[in-house]
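User: I'm curious what two different proteins look like when written out as structure tokens. Can you demonstrate?

Assistant: Sure. I'll show them one after the other, since each token string lines up with its own sequence. Here's the first protein:
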Amino acid sequence: MASIDRKIQRAAAVKQIKKTRAENNRVTKEKVAAARATRENEEPLSPDVQARLAEIVARVVSLHRKSTGQIFELGECLAEAKSVQPEKRFGRWLKDNCGYSVRSAWNFIFVHERLAGHRERLEKHAVATTALFELAKGEPDQIETVLDLYDEGKSLKPSEIKALIGDKKDEAEELTDLRQLGGKAGLQKMAAAKLKSSTAEFHRLIAAVLVGLEEAVARHESGKRIVMNALAADVEINARHASDLFKDVVAPLVPVGRMPKANLQHEQFGLKTGWGAVQHSLYRLGGVGSWPVRDEMEKWVIEVAHPALRFAVHGEPYVVRAAAATSPVLDVAKTDSDVTKNEQIAAEKEVKTDETTPAISDAELDATLNNIMVASKVPAAASMFR
């Protein structure tokens, strides 16, 4: 028994010694790191570096960020200031000399580093500070898409650029094959990844659709008619894809009434709700062939589609208009595959109209019958005398 107790005591002592050594090593490392950081921060800079930093401070103070070019210059100055001094000293230098936080400084530096190749185009369109910050977060193809919209004369708000850019994918997520993760946890991660990517793409698409609608509404407010062909070219494809994503992400699948064995269909939210108006607007904008006549379509764009898309993109309240809710519109197809149903409904209505028997007055009917009777009696009488 004594030997067993001694072994237990020995093991406990060894464990305590290892714990003490680990704690001592941790404290030593922290002290060394703190001393190194102090030396880096307190180490005097060379006269040349100090002189250059003084010039940078003077230049930064003179920049008022009133133009796109000044924003690029500010980013260039801050990037140089960061490169000529220890990294951990940069934050204190910013606070003492410029009044910027490290995060704000990095935003300007990103504009300089990531958008330098597009500076001339951005200065041409006088893009503001916040919009540049959002644009600098994008990938090269996304940046080019936004610049193309600027070149077309579009006016984009920072929130619209943010929606067009979307969220960047996490590198760790890209390296993980979620299809290989089993169980409930794996299913939830796949669903979450799909929701994230689909939502980002949906917001990018509806932001692009809203840009087209804003142009159309601005034309109407200036006293001109909306050019339907131009509107269709701007919004149809993006609206169609956004409609598909909306159904995939938001609209639940419900049974078809009185058809329990039929495939499930996506629920229609109705025009009396904001997202119901978005659902209806995207579906209708995505099918140019089913658009009604110009006057009705123009009124619908202004009263329904434009407010609905502003609700979806900017979160503005959607107010249901009584006239818009009760105005006659073509039926919206309820099944995913029935894309051309509106056209078929219109064609059937035209055929039924052509086949309808025209109204005839009683006088016209009596006169027609008398003529028929007279014409039939003459040949009969002539045959009796032969």
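Here's a second, unrelated protein for contrast:
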Amino acid sequence: MKSFIAIAASLLIASPVLAQVKPCEELKGEIDAKIKNNGVPAFTTTIVDKDVAEDGKVVGTCEGGSKKIVYKRGEASPAPAATSAPAATSAPAAQKSPQ
């Protein structure tokens, strides 16, 4: 009987620790979807180390509590770096020849 209680207690203690280990990108995606479903048009969520001071509201922790996800409302999500810079063209502009 004592061993049953010890096993049950061990499982209850260990289960919250196992539930908290989640990849940050997966959790961030879930949080983003919930925010969009609530009708928020412009926001950002950022993954930062748990010790970093960041403006905004902490809406989740991930990777065993080593990182946190910070939410800021009213700011548009940043565009990916590849699309934010204008593409450079090396070909000269075509000129019309006089006719």
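A detail about the second structure: Helices lie at 2-20, 24-37, 81-84.
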